[in-house]
Amino acid sequence: MKLKSALIMLLSCFGIVRAQEVQMMFVGTYTDGGSKGVYSYRFNQETGEAVVLDSLEMRNPSYLTISRDDRLIYVVSETHDDQASLNIVRITKNGGMRLIDTALTGGENPCYVAANGGFALTANYSGGSMSLFRLKQCGTLAELITRFNGATGGPDLTRQQAPHVHCACFTPDGRYVLATDFSADRILSFRIEGQNVTANDVAAQVSADSGPRHLTFSNDGRFAYLMSELSGKVTVFAYHEGRLEKLQEIVSDRVGARGGADIHLSPDGRYLYSSNRLKDEGIAIFAVDNLTGLLTSVGYQPTAMHPRQFNITPNGRYLLCCCRDSNKIQVFRRDADTGLLTDTHQDIPLSKPVCVQFF
User: Counting runs of H as helices and runs of E as strands, what totals does the chain give?
Assistant: First the structure.
């Protein structure tokens, strides 16, 4: 009887391990090239193989995020008109998707979305604003509360002539929101106070002509890392109570292409990756000093055309890069010891992929 119980336990554990090998992922696209909208895949974290599961028709779902309970997907519809919207999609059995709610952002070209269970945020690039939505207990939209506007002031009279907000995210302590004010070369801070969010001045001013784009945090919440589009630099900050203190600037874009894009840490926090577009397209790789948060360049991985966004599998074994203009997602194997990437040549063909998120 004991042997039988032990065998059942062993098989159960094996089943859990096998289940964890397969990860569901969702991909957003631009739809002017033939794509339907949002796609779901089953991705094998051991072999790097992907199988498409479902698609959901939606116009330009350029960025998405998954709810904390893994039931919902928050998706922006990035359009340059008054139909720009935030959509909520329910994840159904076997990777199926069903649109259940939508609301106008009130700002054109929303290109980023974040949600924390109580609120949802969209960064509206052309609208130059951050839209704040209150969520119901079930995670669906309750109302658009307000919009906070960005500003200008940067020296690039072409790229910074109008306000642009490029990302908005919740801080690890759950008490603040930070938003990148692209055209004013600064990061804005907002305080979460119960059912409201209020302006909390400027979290940090970055170097002129930076064009701050995407922001991410260390696992312990002590450090924040900013990828700037125009300067092509990564800035390291110490984070504390809605404020950022600059510690380091390091070059990601080595050729001055002014196309810096996305930024992510490996799940273990040992390496940081940032993508660069327009020239010498690829991903810069940095080692992270976990004590000081500072970065050291350790490599550069060329990619296909326009690596707009990328992500790393939960087990840290693969990095998937959305190469918009090559119409594919490249699958790179990641060396956990060195941080370096190797192209597996297991590309996922898809028209204009621009965002991948894991379930």
Answer: 1, 29
Does 13 score more than 60 pLDDT? no
Structure token pair of residue 6:
């032990």
Other residues' Cβ atoms within 10 Å of the Cβ of residue 94: 10
User: What is the amino acid identity at position 118?
Assistant: G
Residues 222-229 have a mean pLDDT of 98
* d(C-alpha 222, C-alpha 212), whole Å: 20
Q: Which of 58, 59, 144, 61 is nearest to 103 (CA)?
A: 144
**CA-closest candidate to residue 283, choices 248, 319, 237:** 319
Q: In 3D, which of 36, 81, 80, 74 has the Cα closest to residue 56?
A: 36
What 3-state class would DSSP assign to 4? helix
Longest dimension (CA), the chain: 78
Q: What are 320-357's pLDDT values in tens digits?
A: 999 999 999 999 999 999 999 999 999 999 999 999 99
